[in-house]
Specification:
Number of strands: 6
Oligomer: single chain
Order of helices and strands: HEEEEEHHEHH
Strand order of the largest sheet: 1-2-3-6-5-4
Helix content: 10-25%
Distance between the termini: 25 Å
Shape: globular
Structural class: alpha+beta
Largest sheet: 6 strands, antiparallel, barrel
Length: about 220
Amino acid sequence: MHEFEKYLAPSGEDVVALVQKHPFALIVSSAPGEAPVATHAPVAIPHDAHPVDTFVGTTLFGHIARSNPQWRGIDESVPVLLVFGGPHGYISPTSYEQDPSVPTWDYAAVHLTARVEVLEGADDCMHIVRETVRASEDLMPVRWDDTTSVPTFEQIIGGVVGFRLHIIAEKAVFKVSQDKSDDVRARVARDARERGDAYGDLASLVDSRGRLVCPVTGDA
């Protein structure tokens, strides 16, 4: 992904927060001489991993269906790409209230490059699935306890293949009208809020100039 100097993430903490809040990623791999292949799948931060301002050096977890042929084509010596998308939306020139103007698209995205370990064993896959559930439940207003469902998980765990994803590089773009004047940016956020953000809370991201983490409290 090309990074624009004026659209860099406000901080490394905001990069981490985007992945935490939007864990449903594209896992992209490629084999020599073939087009890249991608699967939409959740990617989890393990409970004992504590990335602060970068994912480089952190290991994440992922899994896909065993029936999906992508995993069989993964060469562990070739890095994979993880694509995470945050809030985004079309910005109409009507928000600018000036002519001439051109439309654009505001968005936040993170790309992580990873060395991948493919895990086929039931114990490894169960651990990854339960870690994924734990991380996903962290985002819920009321937690679900998976304890009584573990026997059901055990019956179907053979249907998935797990990944350890060792992050070696990251890139991010947070393009949220920060190059516009305060009054224009306020109208962009207002209009996004009034029409209802179909692709996440773009209005708040524009209001905060891309901040997902409070610079004072550190809360996401």
